[in-house]
Structures are given as C-alpha cells and as structure tokens.
Hints:
The complex is a heterodimer.
Chain A: E1 2-10, E2 17-20, E3 26-30, H1 37-49, E4 70-76, E5 82-88, E6 95-100, E7 103-105, H2 107-115, H3 120-127, E8 128-130, H4 131-136, H5 140-152, H6 158-172, H7 181-204, H8 206-274, H9 279-283, H10 285-324, H11 332-337, H12 342-390, H13 398-410, H14 416-444, H15 448-479, H16 483-536, H17 547-577, H18 579-590, H19 600-658, H20 665-704, H21 706-750, H22 752-766, E9 771-775, E10 784-787, E11 792-794, H23 800-820, E12 830-833, H24 841-854, E13 860-864, H25 867-877, E14 883-886
Chain B: E1 4-10, H1 28-52, E2 56-60, H2 71-86, E3 90-94, E4 114-116, E5 123-129, E6 132-139, E7 164-169, E8 171-172, E9 182-183, H3 185-190, E10 195-199, E11 205-207, E12 212-214, E13 230-237, E14 243-248, E15 252-260, H4 267-284, E16 289-299, H5 303-306, H6 309-324, E17 330-340, H7 345-348, H8 354-364, H9 367-382, H10 391-407
Parallel strand pairs in B: 1-2, 2-3, 3-4, 6-7, 7-10, 8-9, 10-12, 15-16, 16-17
Antiparallel strand pairs in B: 1-13, 5-6, 11-12, 13-14
Amino acid sequence: MRLRRIDALRFGEMEGASLGALGDRLTLVIGPNESGKTTFTHLVRYVLYGFPKGNTKQPQFRPFSGAPRSGRLTFQDDQGAEWTISRTDGTRGGTVELVGPQGSADPETFLKDITRGVPEDVYASVFGFTLAELSSLESLDKIQDHLRASVSGLARNPGEVRGELTAHMDGLFKPAGSKSEAAVTLAALRELRGRIRDLETAAAALALQQGRRDELSEQNEAADARRRESVATAARLRSVVDSILPLNDQIADNESALVEARIAHQRLAERIGETEVDAALAAQADSLALLAVAADEAEAAMRDRDAVQQRLADQQQAVAAALETLPKGWSQERAEALRVDAERLGEIDTRRDALVMREREADVAADALARMQARAQSTRRLATEALGRAGLPVDADTAAVRARIEGLSAAVAQPAPKGRNGVAIAAAALLSFLGAAIAVLSAIAAQWVLAGLGGVAVLAGVALIVYASFARGRAGSGVVDVAGAVESRSALDDALSKLSAAEAADVDADEASAALDRAHASVEAARAEWREWLAASDIGIEDAPDPAAGRSLWGRVRDVQDAVRRMRETANQLDLVMKPVTRFTHRAAEASITHEGGDAWALAALVRQRADDAQRAREQLAARAALEAELREKADVIAAVMATIEAARKRISDELAAADIKGGLTDAQAALEIAVADAEAADAEYREVNATYNKLLGELENQGGDDEMALLRLEEAGLLGRLEQIAQEFVIAAVARELLTRTLSEYERTRQPAVVQGAAPILERITGGNYVRITTPHDRFDMQLLEDDGDSKTTDILSTGAANQLYLALRLSYISYIQSIGKMCPQAPVIMDDVLVNFDDTRQGNVAQEIVRFAQDRQVVLLTCHESTVSTFADAVGSDAYTLLRL
Amino acid sequence: MTRHVRFIHAADMHLGARFERVSASAESAVATELISSRSKALTSLIDLCIEHAVDFLVIAGDLFDEGGRSAKAHFDAQRELARLGERGIAVYMVHGNHDPADASDFGVAMPSNVRVFSHETVERVEHQRDGEVVCALYGRSFPKATVKDNYVAQVKRDGRDTIAIGVMHADVGAGEGSTYAPCSLGDLQACGLDYWALGHIHKHDVLANNIAVYPGSTQGLDPNEPGAHGCVLVELAAGAEPSIRFVPLDSIRWIRRAVDVSGCATVADVQQALTAAVEEARAESDGRSAVARVTLTGRTEAHRDIAPEAIAADLLEEAQARGMGSQPWVWVERIVDETRPVLDMDALGKREDFIGDLVRLAGAVDPQEILDQAAGDLFSRAGRDMPQFDARAVLERAAEECVDLLRKGAS
Lengths: 887, 411
C-alpha cells in the first residue's frame, strides 16, 4: 500500500490544496515557508487518527472560515487499485469515509490495517515527525520508552508505569518518610499502644489492692452472714408470731361464736318447751278444713233459701193481686179451672173486632153529623149576611130571593142571558145537592170512593153556580147601566147562592143525623148478638158484657194462672236449695259438732272456728319441728367451733414448741422484738462494710479501665486492619515494580541492543565515523556514544545536531527492526518534515544517503523548504533516487 | 446412683481478648456491641443453665484471654458464675492455653460453686445431687500457655463410675508438634469415658459419635470465626450415646462473604453486587447484628476502576450505609479487593515482547525472594504487626497488575 495523494479539502489556511503523485520510495517535497509542508504532515496523521479536540496542545489547523476541517488521503494497493479515505470534522475525531475500487468500504478496518495498531503519539514520534517533534524527544529514556512501547504493543511505556508504581508505593510506605500511610498508621499504633500500656499498668496495680479487697470481702461476707442469720431469726420469729396471731384471733372469734351459739341453743330449747300443740286437733285439720268448706256451702244455700222464700212470698202476693182483678166471686180455684180453647178465643176476638168496627162506624157518623151541622150553621150565617147585603130579611128563603131577582131583572134591558144563567145556576145547584147527598151516604156506608165523587159533584155545582151568577152579573151590567141595579143583582145572586148553600147544608146535616142513628143501631145489634152467643156457650165468663170484656177477663184469668204456677215452682225450688244445708248438718253431726238450737248458721260458724283451730294447731306443730331442727344445728355448730378452737390452740402450742418458745404469744412477740433489733443492727453493720467493699470494687473496676481499654483495643484492631490493607497494597505494588524493573533490565539486555546496534552504523555513517558505537548500561536509562577516538559522551552533552542525528538514526534503526520482526509498522509513509536543517552539509549528504537507503524498502516523504536540501540529495544520491514534488 | 445428668458444655469464651484487625471503632454502635459481645455471650450462657436447670456447667478452657489483661473480664466471670452458685449449679472448668494456671487473675477469686481442675495432674471429681454421686468428671488444667503433653492419655476411668466425663483443653488430631495438649481421637476413645468436653477449637465440632465435642467459642472473636457460636446442651445417661444440642449464644455474628464480580463491568455493577452481599449477610445473621468482611473476587473489567483508594472508600462507605440502614444491622468491616484484570496470562507469557518477558520472569523468580526484596523495608519497620502474605499469590497479582498497567488504553 502506497500513499499517492494528500488533499487538504479544508485544513488550516488551505482549501482544496493537494500534494499528489507521491513516489514508491523517497519523495522530496520542496516548498517555501507557509506553503503547507507542516500542514500536510499533520493532515496525514489527523486523517489517520482523527482531528484533535480543541483542548489539546496539538496544532488545530482550523480553517479561518470556520468550516469543519476536512482532508483526504489516496492510497494505491499492490494491485494498483486506489483507496480514498477522507475525514471531516465531527465527534470522536471526525467522520471517516472510505471509497475503494468496489465503492464504499469499512474505514475502521482500513485504518487499522494502515496504522497496524500504532498509537498516535508513537506514530507522531517515530513515523510522521517534524523537526520540532524530533527535537522534543529530549531524553533518551523517553525515546527508549517510546521504542519499547511501540515494539511491545504497550499502551503505556514501562518507565511511566514504574514511576506510577513508585509514587503509589511512596504514598503507602516510604522507608525514610513519616507521612506515608504505613508510617502514619504505625505511629498511631505506637501511640495507641502506649495508652494501652498505661491502662495495663493501672490494671496491674489492681493486684496490690487485692489483699484489702479480700479482707473487706471476708468482712463483708461475715457481716452478710450475721445479717442473714439475724434476719432469718427475726423472719422465723415473725413467721411464728404471724402464724400465731391469726390463730389467736381465730380462737377469740370462735369463742364469741360459741357463746352466741349456746345462747341461741338455750333460747330455742326454751321456745320449744313453751310451745303447746293440740296434736289431735292438728290431725283433724284437713277434715275440718273440708267441713268448713261444706259450712260455706251450707251458708250459701241458706242465703239462697232466704231469697227463694222471699220470692215465694212475692209470688203469693202476685196471685192475690191477680185474683183481685177478676170480678167478684172469682176464686183461685175457679180461675185455675177456667180453660178457653183457641177456637172459642178466636170467636171472641172476631166478635170483639166486629163490635169495634161498628162502634167505629158510629163514631164516624157522629163526626160527620157534627161537621154537617157546623157547616149548616156556617152557610146559614153567610146566607143571612148576604141577605142583609141584598136588602132582604134574614128569614127570606130562596124563593123570595129569586123573586127579587126577577124583579130586578125586569128592570134590566136584556133579560136573555138572565134566563139561561138562571137555568144553569139551577142545574148547578142540583148537581151540588146530589153530590153532597152521595158523599154523605157514601161516607156513612164507608164507601169512600163514592163519597169522593159526591164531593167533586158538589164542588162542580158550586163552581157552575158561581160562574152562572158571575155571567149573569156581567150580562146585567152590560145591559143595565144603572150601578145600583147591577149591584143589587150581584148581591141578590150572592144571597141566593149562599142561601142555597145553607139549605143544602141543612139537608146534609139531616142526612148525617140519620146515618148516625143507623150506626148506633148496628152497635146495639152486635152486642145483643154477643150476649146471645155467650149465653149459649159454656165458657164460664158469662158475666162479660161484650167480647172485649170477655177477652179482657180471660186475660186476667190467665195472669192468675201464671202467678199460681210461678209460686208453686218457687215452692219446689225451696226444697232443692236446702239440701246442702241438710248434708252439712249431717257431716257436722258426724264430726260431733252440733248446735243446741239447730241453727245452721251458728253450726257453720262453729265448724269454721274448729277448722281454724285445727289449722293453727298444725302450724304450731310445724313451727315446733323447725325449732327442734334448728336446735340440733346449733348443737352441731357448738361442737364444730369447739373443735376449731381446740385445733388452733394445738397449732399455737406446736408453733411455739417448734420455735422453742416457752410461754405463749406474748413471749413470742417479745422474742421477735429482740430479733428485729438484732437484725437491724446486723444490717447496719453489713451496709457499712458492704459500702466500703463496693467502693473498693468500683475503684478496682474503674482502675481496670476496661471500657476504655476495650475501645483502644478495638481501635488498635482497626489500625492493624488498616496496616494490613496498606501492606497488601504495598507488597503488590512493590513486587510489581520489582518485576517491571527486572523485566526492563532483561529487555535492555536481550532486545534493546538490536535497535541500538542497528542505529550505531547509521549514526557512524551520518557522522562520518565520528561516533562508532552506542552503549546502553543495564542499570541506567541512558546511552553513551563512543567516539572513534575511544572517548564516550553521554546524550546530555551532545550538540543539538548530533542529538538529532542520534534520534534519527535510532528511528531508522527501530523502524527497520520492527519491520524485520513483523511488528507494528504502519503502511503509511514515514514523513519527515525538514529534519535536516540542523545538519551541516556533509552530514546532510550522509543523511540523504541513509534516507535513500532506508527508502529502498518503504515509502518515505521528506518535506523541506530549502532548495539546498534538494541539491544535497541530488548531489549525494542523484535525482533518479527520489521523486521531486514542488508546492 | 442416678443414671442421668444434664449439663451445658462451653469453652473458649476468651473474655478480655484483643480484637484482630477489625475496623469497627468508627461506628459507636458496632464498637459497643463488639466490646460487650463476649460478656453478653457469658450472660446468655448462665441464663441458659438456669433456664434448663442443668446439673452443672462445664468450661473446657480459655474462659479468659490473658493477652487482653482485663480485670473486668474476671469481675464479669465472677459475677456471672456466682449466679449459678445462688441456684446450686456447680461449674467445672479447666485452664486453657489462653488462661493458664500461672496467668494473673487480678486477685479475683472464683465463686465457691466453681471447681477448677488441677494443673498438676488429672483430677477426678464427683458430682453429687441430693447427696448422691451422679457422675464423675476428669480434667486437668494448662499450667502455662504451652503444653506438649498428652493429658488425655493420662485419664483412667474409675470402675465405680456410672457416668464419666472428661474435661480438657486439647488439640485433637494435631500431632505431637502441637503445644496445646495434643491427642488423637483414638486417645479419647481409649479412655472409655462417656463424654469428652473439649475446648480449644473455636468452631463447633462433634467427634467420634458424639462422645467428644468441641462446642466452639461462645462468641466469634474476629472475622476468621464466622457463623454461629455458642455451647452444647448435653443429656447423658449411662450406657447410652450422649444427646447433644448446639445452642447459639453469640450476640453478634461474623460473616465472610466472597463476591464474584467477574460479571461486573462498572463500579455501579460492583456496588450492586456489594449491596446484594450485604443483604445476604443480613439474612445469614439469623436475626443478630453482624460484622461482615467482603472479598471481591474474579477477573473483571471493573478491576482498574475500583482500585483507586477513593473509589474503594466510596464503595465501602456505601456498603456500610446499606448495612446499617436497617435492623438487624450489618457492619461491613472491610472490603478486600482480590479482583484481577481480565488477562490471559498464559497466552501473554508466550509472546516475544516486553510483556511476554515480564510474565515469564514472574513465573521464574522465587516469590518469597522478590517479596522480601521489594517489601523488606516495610517488613522491618512494621515488625510483628506485619501480616503474613502468600508470596506466590502476591507475585501473581503483582505480575497481573504490571501487565494491566502497561496495557491500559491499548486497543
């Protein structure tokens, strides 16, 4: 793979600038200052590794326009195909694109293949360097580190790692220092242990006080024992007293109870003795109770008998009173014997009803007569008045009136209507008369329909008369214009009318009177018929003047019969009512209870008294039995209390005996007081000794300082733990550094000579044999240059030119070496930017020959701004040995 | 003679012992709990004896740790054992290598109910109940911190014994080189005792069909004693195999967890794994507070990221905050970073370059020689406080560290 072309699309001051047609081996690029040589050198690296970030010290080459940086490299592979890789500013060094013969391809793989894993800084130092970068390798150990790193594929140079390990170790432990973590921790441990020793010393002093402690302990135990003993004695006595006291109280209580029980027993016995009971009578209590019930029943019967007797008397009086209602001569026996059957009784009723009907008709006729008579009087009075008004005498009759009317009519011019009206009036009067007659007769005969029709005819006749009269008056007024005539005629007509009515009324009254007479006759006939029938019958009530009286008499006889019957029933009831009384008197007699007077009431009272006595006797008997039972219980209680008292006395005696106390409770209490006093004294003594003892124990414990010591020991443990961690870290770092040192030594011994030895002849040729050998001591990071006269120089005293020549020789040797062993050697060309400027002409020529030789196996680009450099190359190796490009 | 006894067998309380490389003083709650944990275990032990109304308590050595020189430890023991005396419960004990007979007791005498076996010869002590001998106990104390003699072999069972119990602080199976009264399992069995109450090994262990038992320490002493610690309740009947039941007494539990972070690519991943480890530790603590030491292992891409001290401190602080954030708390005492970079050292060792040279050199050098060469100054300065290192492991890690640093940033 060869780099053929470099395009600065936008990079620094350049935009669209190119450096093309690079040769297979050495290409010299000549250009004036600021023509872009250094820019192209950096562009190659940046396209391969990415544009640097703004915060790095590397040259940025940002376009003035502010546009993103962009560059492109064109490679040609061994088959002649071109690969163009371009990079444009962006994140992570910029965006990379690759275009190969088949189009776009993976740029990352391509770049790895080109750079062969060589880090950028190594590339910048070894493969693409400017004079400044060449000169920046100020010390040989640094370039050696770079060389080692590049040779071994290390990310970091071993010297740097060694330095880091050393710094870490120094932080952990530094033999001569006092600030390392181990030193600080050990110092803290020492200080802590000093404090612990002090506490241990204090603890050791405790032993000296043990004698005093033991002595006090013995005193304490002895006092405690005395206290315990005296307390135990007091407790024992207190226990005895405490156990006796309730027993004593119990005895006292029981003795009181015993006295009470005995008194109660005595009283019960007395009450029993005082109690007299008629046992025989008590035994009859039940039978007497039953007899008392019978007495109650007898008394109730007697009360019923009195009521019945009263009722019987009342009924006897009722019989007498009923007999009084009968006609004289009627006895009870006659009344009881009288029997009227239903048929005859119906006959009587029929006759009675008929008679009543006739009497009622007579009454009606009488009423009609009275009415007719009243009407006759009324019409007569009206007629009289009308006659008066007509100027006629009060006794004038109808004929007189008519005559008068006729006379008057003659005086009137038109008599025609008069004649017709007169006929009409007459006809009407006739009609009225007939109607009245029919009505009266029909009423008398109770033919009410005909009577009604008669009434109607009367009214019609009267109406016709009035009408005819009126019509006649009107006709007269029309004919006779004389007012008087008219008036007279009217009065006459009125008088005639009324007079006619009065006469008709008189007729009616007469008819009514006749009808009344007939009714009376009919009544009398019915009564006669009753008497005849009664006489013909054998009923036995012949003294009844009419059927109604007969019916009434029979009714009263029946009342007598009913009263007699009720009286007899009551008399029969009286016997029944008296039966319980009879039974009671018999049972009382059987119970030998009698009353001299035979009075059942008195007997009942006597029986009830005897029954009550028997019941009381029975209750008294039961009460005495209860008293006797209570008496027995009291006796038992007395026995139990006496036993309890005896037991308590026995226990007291035993307790005292067990406590070895002579006497009784009082003696025990006295002993207890003495024991309590002893215990208090012993306790006081113990408290005093114990306080002293505990005080010493407290002092001893405090002097032990265990809490503080425990904390210190815990801190000590923590420090030891920390020391362990420090030591762990330290030994690993220390062994690592030792390993690194030994490996470096081995590396220098076995591998570094190949590079250095390869550089020596290059340097010798460059310097024209002035420096013939380079040495690298194993124990130092340094080089020595051996001059041809046998003198040696260390690198720090070399001139800048000689040093640059050494560095260049080392680079050329190194690149040749790693390429020979197949290690990481980029396929990009080695680019040198004006690295010959510090060399004299001779050495420039020597360098030109070395570079041409070096370029035989690889692509090299040498950029310069000096025409003399081109001339030097042309003179030294001939222009055919390189490709010349001008910027 | 009654043919049944019930007792509690405990050992290795190490009252007053120093703490071993524990980082806990910064958290007062943890420090307080740690400091009081051993005495609390003793109190719990006494409570247990009372609760079960045992015939006696056996303490098979190392009740105290004289390295701590603690007077308070003796006061605590005196007070607690006296509680048993008040209830008529006897205590039979031997001195162990940490509290030998010649060690100072600060003048604090044991209560009268405590019977300490002689350090001059094997003693036979009869235990009586209600005036009747119920069993015999055989034991011998350590006269000093080292005992090379086989005390167990000196025990001869009395023919009168219905039940015989041995009480020894001994190193069973350790061989003759041990300085802790070594003996073999065969020695124990040969004595024909019914039960051997042993002490010295801090992890509970049952040997030879229940006849020989290490109850373990009553409270784990440091991160190297993780898991439950306590005592054993023993029911012993003549002619029958002992019935034993382990009863935890520890108030605080030590937990060691190795967290493989080979699957972690970032610091956040590691932190997440640590959080999970903390919660696992909490679950493992059986309701107790716990002190955990977490070791990160495995080859991980995050190896270089978690290496800086500040990051490691942040991870520790976060884990501690998580652990103390809820109850029961878990104090992450330390995070040990044993992670490795993702490297194929075998392949790298075949390369003909600088790294290849380094890997091959690491495989060829004497680990101890290079360790002494590299860290000799520190060893000299730190003296006995310097921890022991596995030189081979250090060399391997150092080589990987070198390679990782050299390759850092390499594509």
